[in-house]
């Protein structure tokens, strides 16, 4: 990958009004937390954020659930060096999750704005971890060639929704809508109309 996820990158896309802001992130986090807690039928305890960047989800999560255990992984040397110790962020590429299992399955797994930048080989190597490390709900925000998403288009992979849907379903994840996926462990407890046909 030739992209450099340095301070300038995060300044442009995450701090200068690039692809959202604090209010938009807070809404996504609230959605993910509420969806996970609805299906778990208890408060959120643990979150794993794969492709966490600077760990922006952490602060928003702690505002809602101050006792939540947050663990993040990213390939950005800058983000880990700058925020790793304070925000519990660690270095790993997505493909490292072919073997990496850093924790027990979590209540909420986050993989936001990551998959559409990965080569197919790296994607397929790390993807099984999303299902294996998710014990509740996964928030997997991914955009396709038909979405017309606004943001960083450098190395963006123009794939169909079917490409992602088929891979995630093959792992046992079930779509809930709004980028949320139910873990294989909870599928049997869902009612018929909680899952699409």
Automatic annotation (TrEMBL):
Q: Which SUPFAM superfamilies match?
A: S-adenosyl-L-methionine-dependent methyltransferases
Keywords on this record? Answer: Methyltransferase, Transferase
Q: What GO molecular-function term can you cite, just one?
A: methyltransferase activity
Protein name as catalogued = Class I SAM-dependent methyltransferase
- Its domain of life reads Bacteria
Domain Methyltransferase type, which positions?
Answer: 48-125
A single BP term in Gene Ontology: methylation
Q: Give start-end ranges for the coiled-coil region(s).
A: none
State if DNA repair is listed as a keyword: no
């Amino acid at each position: 990958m030739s992209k450099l996820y340095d301070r300038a990158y995060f300044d442009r896309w995450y701090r200068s009004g690039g692809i959202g802001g604090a209010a938009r992130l807070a809404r996504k986090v609230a959605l993910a937390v509420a969806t996970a807690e609805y299906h778990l039928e208890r408060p959120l305890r643990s979150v794993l954020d794969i492709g966490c960047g600077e760990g922006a989800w952490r602060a928003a999560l702690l505002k809602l659930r101050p006792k939540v255990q947050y663990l993040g992984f990213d390939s950005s040397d800058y983000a880990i060096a700058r925020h790793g110790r304070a925000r519990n962020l660690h270095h790993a590429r997505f493909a490292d999750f072919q073997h990496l299992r850093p924790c027990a399955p979590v209540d909420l797994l986050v993989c936001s704005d990551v998959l559409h930048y990965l080569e197919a080989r790296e994607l397929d190597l790390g993807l099984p971890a999303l299902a294996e490390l998710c014990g509740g709900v996964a928030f997997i925000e991914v955009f396709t060639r038909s979405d017309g998403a606004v943001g960083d288009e450098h190395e963006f992979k123009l794939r169909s929704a079917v490409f992602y849907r088929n891979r995630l379903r093959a792992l046992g994840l079930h779509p809930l809508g709004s980028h949320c996926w139910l873990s294989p462990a909870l599928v049997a407890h869902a009612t018929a109309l909680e899952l699409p046909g």
